[in-house]
Amino acid sequence: MSLELSAPPQSEPACADDGVWLECIDCGEQFAPFEEIHYTCADCDSLLEVRYADAPTFEDFEGSGVWRYNAALPFEEGVTLPEGDTPLHEVPRLREEIGVDSLRIKHEGMNPTGAFKDRGMTVGVAVAKELGVGRLACASTGNTSAALAAYGARGDMETLVLLPKGKVAAGKIAQASLHGARILEVDGNFDSCLDIVQELAGLGEVYLLNSLNPFRLEGQKTIGFEILEEHYQDYGEYPDRIVLPVGNAGNTAALYKAFRELVASGALDESEVPTLTGVQAEGAAPMVDAVQNGRDEVERWDDVETRATAIRIGNPVNAPKALPGIYNTGGTAVAVSDDEITDAQRQLAGAGIGVEPASAASLAGLRKLRASGEIGADESVVCLTTGHLLKDPDAAFEAGGDPEPVPNDTDAVLEHINDGNDTMAGRLAQQLSKVADSSALPAIVGGGLGLAYLGYRALRSDDN
């Protein structure tokens, strides 16, 4: 099988079920999608892709949400909350500051559990029910566990999540716990958690719903469909470039698959495909290392560290699918420091868009590549932000500052709020002037974050 952008469509094999089958990206072996469970190729152990007899066109898409794109999905409907239809924000001030022709933010943090993972999970859980499995499982840096737990609860299925001990943001653990998942903390990193889950899946104990599962990426590719549709509808053209954070590389692979399918149907010309640009944290950048050295394979990093916990991954399983997506669209990959991520997170917060640290990596990468001239001033760019600010309340509270004590007196309060930089405008100016201050995370956080955080602390405190 070819992962070339303009690969010709495949004829439907005998193993197909209603025009759907699984196919190895290396040896081309094909498998029935719903008779047995396949995560990787039974012949060569390479990654699998979901294939369809008919490639989709934009005219095939009707309705709303992820399942609007059911012409390019295994089923017509699934276990839904619902998900998708996330906003594509204009950010004029950031566009001017960074210096590009146009800039939009696709905020996937507005999905039901606060992250893009919901798109993949609505499809993955639907497939699990079709296969008749009993227990769902994943390894996670946090967002996958929250989505698995929520969609498992929605589908009335048992869920198990393995997390690296001490490496997952509190808000994400709270989500998985409240949705009823059984949570195991492993004394290791994400990659070791995934190794264990894969072994459990191989023993038939669980149904694995990490992005190694090819059906997960089917839901995630709808991000690509949405970006193209929304951008064209609003601005009469497709974006030149999409910049996105990279952890396990599932979104890079998924967006590339969406574009390949549209090219195969003739709905999208190859010249109209956006350039894919991946961004990783400097302390967890195996994909960047591969791209900058022109390699077709990623070398595993065993020791990874970044405050952007959602992309703290040293062995991205979807690299064999994602690297062709970067290379074949003329893209690149860049590593950014935690300080640069923090600065970008603060910039987004100043524009009213609250994201967790990993999400801000996309804007940080854009800033870095624009400053170096690798991204031109004439480009139209979409930055993908993958998770909501509320996902990591500890990080936000550490930088948000303490409440200001005032007397129980209106005159005293009035005097206080009008005292120099204590005015709202002054405080905002202070925040924006600290964009380069690496020690702080966004201070612009809503009351909902405080309630979520305090509720979580109340639930978990040993004193209660």
From TrEMBL:
**Single Gene Ontology BP annotation:** threonine biosynthetic process
InterPro entries attached to this UniProt entry = Ser/Thr_Dehydratase (IPR050147), Ser/Thr_deHydtase_PyrdxlP-BS (IPR000634), Thr_synthase-like (IPR004450), TrpB-like_PALP (IPR001926), TrpB-like_PALP_sf (IPR036052)
Enumerate the Gene3D superfamilies for this protein: 3.40.50.1100
Could you tell me which PROSITE patterns the record lists for this protein? DEHYDRATASE_SER_THR
* Span of domain Tryptophan synthase beta chain-like PALP: 79-387
A Pfam short name: PALP
Listed GO molecular functions?
L-serine ammonia-lyase activity; pyridoxal phosphate binding; threonine deaminase activity; threonine synthase activity
Where does this protein act, in terms of pathway?
Amino-acid biosynthesis; L-threonine biosynthesis; L-threonine from L-aspartate: step 5/5
State the needed cofactors, names only. Answer: pyridoxal 5'-phosphate
EC annotation?
Answer: 4.2.3.1
Alphabetized, the UniProt keywords read:
Amino-acid biosynthesis, Lyase, Pyridoxal phosphate, Threonine biosynthesis
Enzyme class, top EC level, equals lyase
Q: Which residues carry this modification: N6-(pyridoxal phosphate)lysine?
A: 117
Q: Which family does it belong to?
A: Belongs to the threonine synthase family.
What is this protein identified as?
Threonine synthase
Q: What is the native source organism of this protein?
A: Halonotius aquaticus
